[in-house]
Amino acid sequence: MEPIQVLRGVVVLIHLIGFATLFGAWVVEAFGKRGVTSLMNWGLLIAAVAGIALAAPWGITWDLNYVKLGVKLVILVVIGALIGIGAARQRKSGSVPPALFWSIGVLTLANAGIAVLWR
Ligand code: HEM
Questions:
Q1: pTM as predicted
Q2: How many domains does the chain have?
Q3: Of 17, 18, 41, which Cα lies nearest the Cα of 29?
Q4: Which of 36, 38, 59, 67 pairs as cysteine with 4 (C-beta 3.0–4.6 A)?
């Protein structure tokens, strides 16, 4: 394996740590208070930085699917907006509207599903 391929593998791993942090934090809340936590923001930030780094064609011999990456980026921005709105609602009323809370988990899973199933 070339060093650049190893480096890309490390960035993929960081991307997965971001996904695990975001989704794990959400699952904890799904079985708890169904609120928004700062850990979700950290997971999203880590997934975003690593994902954008992976959206450039380095360390691979195949072509990237930029339509797929664009869709993932839009979904990521929407998740960020929902976490932000959820946090504001939580501050004001003490809880997050259920539709908003569930959308965060569904969209996070959707992005992981798109990553794995859309080739
Ligand atoms: C909440 C947001 C996101 C989640 C949950 C997520 C999830 C995942 C998962 C589970 C994988 C591993 C599957 C695989 O290796 O095929 C992956 C890979 C990847 N993601 Fe994401 N992702 C997110 C956002 C993004 C964004 C915004 C971008 C870039 C615009 C991006 C770019 C990529 C790329 C390029 C890979 C393939 C890595 C490789 O094999 O070289 N992701 N993502």
A1: 0.95
A2: 1
A3: 41
A4: 59
Q: How far is the CA of 75 from the centre of ligand 1 (A)?
A: 11
Q: What is the domain range of residue 88? A: 3-117
Half-sphere exposure of 105 (CA within 13 A, CB side): 16
Q: Which of 19, 20, 21, 32 is nearest to 101 (CA)?
A: 32
Structure tokens at 36: 């928004």
Q: Ligand 1 centroid to 91 CA: how many Å?
A: 31
Which among 111, 108, 113, 114 has a CA at the least distance from the CA of 29? 108
The protein residue with its alpha carbon nearest to ligand 1, atom 21, reads 51
